[in-house]
Structure formats: structure tokens, C-alpha cells
Design brief:
With 149 residues, this protein is an alpha/beta fold. The chain contains four helices and six strands; from the N terminus they run H-E-H-E-H-E-E-E-H-E.
Length: 149
């Protein structure tokens, strides 16, 4: 197969809209733009939020307060039910979790949550543990180690 042998699938290439070719074409006179005014001009219409020169709503509303988005700490979450599925592994840390696909490689901090049960002793290293996860891990004879940053 060569480039000159390739062809488009039927319906893939659509002809451009030919405007301004007389009234009989169906796209004559105003060319589908309606009447006169700002929206009929080239360069599109108006920007988002523009209210025709009136003071826009986003400028009328007060801009006060605190937003925690820039300062929050996000954790990649792993449940005990996910750890239970890793039957052959007894020592679990960041490397193992990434290999098994439970967290992404670029994940920041890791938190283990207590959703599910643990039937065997496992040594888990993570940045944070929920209280229920820690009790379940220790009840199964395992160890919950908080990773030092």
C-alpha cells in the first residue's frame, strides 16, 4: 500500500459551504448570518460574558474569600480490598503499587483506606493511613509504616 493508493471513506470529505452565490443558492444575500449588526460582521461575535456594554455580572459580584485549591494536599487512595488482591506480595510500597497498577507513577502521596478486609499479615509503607485501615492491618498481624518524606 502506498500513499497514492489511499482513498477516503465515503462521506469523510464534505464540500465547503459556498456562500454569497446568489439568492437561488439558498446562501445568498446575508449568507446565513441573519440581518445586520455585530453578529453579522467577520471575526465572530462577542467574547464570553459580554453583555453589550452593560457592566457584566462577573464584575458586579464581589471577589472575596479564600480558596483552598492552591494549598490542598491530594492523596492517591488505595483500599485494603485492593491490597488483599495482591496475594503473592507481603511487603507493599510505592514501587509495588505502581507495578500492579493500583496507583499512577506520577502520584504524589499515598493514603491507605480501610475499605475491605485483610486476611494475611502484610507490611505496608505509605504516607498516611486511615484509623480503620491501621487497626485492620495490625489485627491481621501486619505492619503499617508511615513513610518519612
Amino acid at each position: 500500500m502506498k500513499l497514492h493508493n489511499l482513498s477516503n471513506v465515503g462521506g469523510a470529505v464534505k464540500r465547503g459551504k459556498r456562500v454569497g452565490r446568489g439568492e437561488g443558492s439558498g446562501r445568498g444575500k446575508t449568507c446565513g448570518r441573519g440581518g445586520k449588526g455585530q453578529t453579522a460582521r467577520s471575526g465572530g461575535s462577542v467574547r464570553i460574558g459580554f453583555e453589550g456594554g452593560q457592566m457584566p455580572l462577573y464584575r458586579k459580584l464581589p471577589h472575596r474569600g479564600f480558596n483552598n485549591k492552591n494549598f490542598r494536599v491530594e492523596y492517591a487512595v488505595v483500599n485494603l480490598s485492593d491490597i488483599e488482591k495482591l496475594e503473592s506480595v507481603n511487603e507493599i510500597d510505592r514501587v509495588v503499587l505502581v507495578e500492579k497498577g493500583l496507583i499512577r507513577g506520577n502520584a504524589g502521596l499515598i493514603k491507605v483506606l480501610g475499605d475491605g478486609e485483610l486476611s494475611r499479615a502484610v507490611k505496608i509503607t505509605a504516607d498516611k493511613f486511615s484509623a480503620s485501615a491501621k487497626t485492620k492491618i495490625e489485627a491481621a498481624g501486619g505492619e503499617a509504616i508511615v513513610a518519612s518524606a
